[in-house]
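Name: Aldehyde dehydrogenase
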Amino acid sequence: MDKTESAARRAAAVAAPGYVLDRREAVPRLIGRHEDFLFVGGLAGSAKDLAQLTNDGAHAYLLGGAMGAACMMGLGLALARPDRRVLVLTGDGELLMNLGALATIAVMNPPNLAIVCVDNGHYGETGWQRSHTARGVDLARIAAGAGIRATRTIASEAELEEGARFLRQGNGTCFVLLRVAPTEPPAYRRNLDPASCRERFRAALLGAR
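Structure predicted for Aldehyde dehydrogenase:
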């Protein structure tokens, strides 16, 4: 057992109530058919979630080291391609770096944008410290307070099917807070060459007309 896995297990042992879903099962079930979306993936765990789900597909642009950028990049993409459904998959730590993005997104309110925050209550990238959400900060309520009218919190398997339908609604931006246990994301070795990732995503974007 390496140090990262050991830290994740210790975090899981003291996780706050309500953080029980296995992200490796919940994320694919919530998203469903991944070909329905263009993706922007936040760094760390959510990027690995999407890399595993899409087999590191060209229609997923996955960040590394750009904390707080995912939602605004998703907004720009949704505005540029109103004919495509755009999904931002990010984590609680990444979103906490740029909560003001939710207010801008709410004002613009593109109907083809969905945001999923995979909230495990921990900063998995920096040592599995408890995050603000494990201490009572509710990102779904913050999204609603910012003006995003369609929000959901999903914390049980029974809610995943309805959540998948919710992500595909087209009557305004939607926000889903997916509460998961603080366990390791998929161990997927994704492409970390930013130039090649940019070019393949651009080709997928321009080819999907």
